[in-house]
Amino acid sequence: MSRSPRRSSPAPVRDGPMAMVDTSQLNRLKSGKMHGLWINYDHRGTLEQCGNYIYGEKYGAWNTYDSDGSPNSTGMYEKGKRTGPWMIFYKNGVTNAVGMMKDDERIGTWTVYHEDGTFKKKMEF
User: CA-to-CA distance for 82 and 117, rounded, in angstroms?
Assistant: First the structure.
């Protein structure tokens, strides 16, 4: 799921969740590694993902987006691996699945929903 940044200086954000971000502090390297807040855009300028790196490893909350800009997933990273709670979304914004991750693997019970938001099933990992 990790992608390299498509451009180093994002287009200015005038509204939405990124409107208050100080873009002078984005996509910086420290000791040759990605460090701090990173926001990646595709070739059309559509937001792809945003989150923090600590010396080249994803850390903390990350959000990914589909090519139309709708949320795709949100979750936590620790030492570059998906760890903790994760949510995956349908293109219409409705939650598809919710569960826990550890070292990039699904663990425990995941709850899956239909595209209309109604319960579909539980899965054990």
Answer: 24
Domain ranges (residues) in the chain = 24-124
Structure tokens at 34: 């990605």
8 A C-beta contact, residue 113 and residue 97: yes
Give 88's Cβ-side CA count (13 Å radius).
15
Task: Give the strand order in the sheet containing 57-65.
Answer: 28-30, 33-41, 47-54, 57-65, 71-78, 81-89, 95-102, 105-113, 119-124
Intra-chain end-to-end CA distance of the chain, in Å: 20
Number of H helices, E strands in the chain: 0, 9
Q: pLDDT (tens digit, 9 = 90+) per residue, 32-48?
A: 899 999 999 888 889 99
CA–CA distance, 19 with 15 (Å, rounded to integer): 5
pTM over 0.85: no
d(CA 27, CA 30): 10
**Topology classification of domain 24-124:** 2.20.110
Residue position matching structure tokens 């000791």: 31
